[in-house]
Amino acid sequence: MKKILISEWVPEECLAPYKEDYDFTCPSREKHAFSYDEVYEMIEDYDAYFILDNEGDKKVIDRAKNLKVIANFGVGYNNIDWKYATEVGLPVVNTPTTVTEATAEHAVALLIATMRGVARYDREVRRGVWNSPNFSDIDCEVYGRTLGIMGFGRIGKMVCKKAQGLGMKVIYFDKYRASQEVEKEYNVTYMSFHDVVKNSDCITLHMPYIPENHHIFNAEVFRAMKDSAYLINAARGPIVDEKALAKALKDGTIKGAGLDVFEDEPNVEPELLELDNVTLTPHIASCTLKARMGMCREALGGIIGVLEGKKPYNVVNPEVLK
After folding, report:
1. Residue 6 belongs to what H/E stretch?
2. In this protein, which residues make up the domain named D-isomer specific 2-hydroxyacid dehydrogenase catalytic (predicted)?
């Protein structure tokens, strides 16, 4: 019977369909999670490793002599050394489809909360401050504004639909431009990276974290944005230079930001914590029970597919599958 190691507790109903044929090891609900060191000590004899909030680095991969597939609980997989995994012929699985709706929804929630100052007003009311000015430009209507979407994949497209429902005009940049049919379907305009930056009233990030995207939003880019513009990041933290963002927010280079992801989670750039024009959430864009259960099933489906000699759609390096 093939053995599957799971780094964090998952609901029994996700495992139940496979329990007759596979041997699962995961922590109890009370323990919640295995540490990296615990995983390293255990993994040598396992056929599959399902990662939730842990790492699949070269050290772990080298120790896992029997490993046939490694999966991540999320769309991104930068916590796995996937390049090394590809070199040694190890398939890497992710969860590309089940997070789409929840993540797009949270990105739009951050957009509205940030542009309308929801979190700031909440903090003020709790402190006993009743700040209700009759004439102020501290906040901004969403309706009629231009949203720039950076990364027009599944989530970017869903954000586009939701933003248009709010009355926003949408422009986008993606390294791989969509077809004319898709652009027509979504009523969206393609622009260069820099044109999206300078023409948007709000920019939302939905690009992957790859080396070329490290700090792609930096001091120079913030200076190119409108001083009335907002930045939303529900993609990956290192896409944004947090120190430069904090300075841009503090100096009024841009008007506000909404962040669900950070460079060094769970740590947040201290200056950001002191600013009123930023809305912060703890990497929970996909945190609905429906989405998380779907992610678990999607990852396990990919794992089982590989172990059964199939070629699942959610293998990110399918070239290793013969």
Report:
1. strand 2-6
2. 4-317
